[in-house]
Here is the input.
Amino acid sequence: MSDMMGEIRDLNLTYLMLAQQMIREDKSAAIYRLGVSQQLAEILADLTPAQVLKMAGSNVLLCRLRFDDKLILGLLTTHGRDHAMPQSHAAILLAQQPVEELA
Amino acid sequence: MRNKSVVTEGKQIQLAIELINLGARLQVLESETGLSRERLLKLYKEVKGESPSKGMLPFSADWFLSWQPNIHSSLFVDIYHYLTEHTELRGIDALVKAYRLYLEHVQANSLEPILTLTRAWTLVRFLGSLLDIVPCKRCGGHFIVHRLELNGNYVCGLCHPPSRAGKTKKLAAELTQAALAA
Here is the structure.
């Protein structure tokens, strides 16, 4: 079990650091790629290394599966002849989803 | 003098270079930067090493409605609207960013980038006049449609592809090649 806790912490750390890097390099593109609101993106980018470490040390994952809609999941796992079209369909539907934001 | 501020002019030149590199036609540059036609022509030749293509822009709204172009164009417009809704980007800046994200999607999935920047720019101008965006009744994704058609029961080309969808000459040639090689 402690192995899994370590992996969760590693993934949280990787996710938070990647998110920060993405937001600092290109905020608008990061808001699209991460699916978060501008406000949340700004808060993430401003986290100090100490705060990132503290957040990452949680026993739950901090990033969530964005494909919670059955349809999107179905599209992404379809391997038809026109493989790329399900990917485009998924991207169209993702652009329609609400962003993660502060309540 | 059209541009009093050197900084503003610098920004406009930067934008023009970015647009030229993305494949924009001269008409797009003239409309989006405050630079004169002569300066843009010179800049274009300097960046591309050749003169810009002459003639009219592709102006047909129907192009955006055939099967494959519709999917590419709808994806671009959805990204564009995502950016204008959730970020501070507006106008040409949002268009350029959305186009770059569209190109990224196309490359990641080994597709042909059939939507050019000039078409993407034309598309944004057509929205609200000739073209509109409606949700598909089945999947809920937003797609480009003719403004004047009845779209209450619209089902998109991905939920209900036409029987010949995607069967291009190129694909047929590839299949023949593969069959010959086998």
In short: Residues 65-103 of chain A form one domain. The two ends of chain A are 32 Å apart (CA to CA).
